[in-house]
Amino acid sequence: MENAVTDATLTDETSTGATPSTSEPILVAIDGPAGSGKSSVSRAAAEQLGFGILDTGAAYRALAWACREAAVDLDSEDAVSAMLDGWAYAITLRGEQRVQVTLPGGTEAFDVSAVIRTPEISGQVSRVSKHAAVRVRLNNMFRDIVAASGLPGVVIEGRDITTVVAPDAPVRILMTASPEVRAARRAGELDGESLEQVLADITARDAKDAAVVDFLNPAAGVTLIDTSDMNFGQSIQAVIDTVDKARGAGPSNDKER
Ligand SMILES: Nc1ncnc2c1ncn2[C@@H]1O[C@H](COP(=O)(O)OP(=O)(O)OP(=O)(O)O)[C@@H](O)[C@H]1O
Ligand SMILES: Nc1ccn([C@@H]2O[C@H](COP(=O)(O)O)[C@@H](O)[C@H]2O)c(=O)n1
Q: Which of 5, 35, 42, 120 could form a disulfide with 157 if both were Cys (CB 3.0 to 4.6 A apart)?
């Protein structure tokens, strides 16, 4: 993969505002199904902790977008892997999330921050994330991004972070919520999508994704946070409490197995 760059190329608001750390960042690994609140809760928790946030789903989404733009067959593992040889990908770890992609052979860095969130991309992304070879390469890219971040800590969220990308992270969380709660939250964000449609979409995506990685059951040592009956603030606090507990301080309301 050419140039998997992060904050450094994405202007001011992405800079950490602190002396870059020279040691490995502390990792907070968070997994969960679609709409569980991983991204938004992780982002808010990261801000409180003074950490960066790496949204790994954004890379899969950007890859699906790039393949569609370049008329690459999303179901072909070889063709999608070839896209990884030629593209350039950049994501901010601090401040507003910005995602940029340069297509193979191109020079323009497209800002795909908004388009990767559309239902069209959500509906196609599992076609690229199902490929084992693609996952291995993106997982290496995620580890490289974190290692090069210069941040004191990074919250990294996705589907296989607690189990594959960072199984040794000192804090590992599975964030979940009932399908109905997740659909209601997501429907609130999407204009013109009925609750039934959103529920059907996230259920279908979870089923496809769960065939590749298990993000519905916490692995040994992973803290389960079910946010079904929590508001946004309580969900953030549950993450902070879990981090504090791992650091040997403060309360905890988690369930471990
Ligand atoms: N505990 C909560 N209470 C109320 N709303 C919440 C809570 N957690 C998250 N939300 C809201 O639910 C929506 C979905 O959250 P978010 O996008 O973070 O989920 P996600 O797990 O990252 O989803 P995806 O995997 O589809 O990207 C957002 O509008 C978010 O603000
Ligand atoms: N670690 C990950 C993260 C994401 N995926 C795939 O990307 C899709 C989009 O992820 P969001 O978190 O933005 O919803 C998701 O549906 C998976 O197909 C993944 O496989 N592994």
A: 42
Pocket test for ligand 2, best of 112, 129, 136 (most atoms within 8 A of CB): 129
Using CA atoms, how far apart are residues 214 and 51, in angstroms rounded to an integer?
26
pLDDT at residue 223 above 90?
Answer: yes
**Closest ligand to the CA of 231:** 1
Residue 43 lies in domain: 4-11+24-248
The model's pLDDT over 184-209, given as tens digits with 9 standing for 90+, comes to 998 877 777 789 999 999 999 999 99
Q: Is 187 in the pocket of ligand 1 (CB under 6 A)?
A: no
CATH number at residue 120: 3.40.50.300
131 part of a folded domain: yes
Q: What is the ipTM of this complex?
A: 0.97
For residue 19, being part of any structural domain is answered with no
Q: Which residues are annotated as a binding site for ATP?
A: 32-40
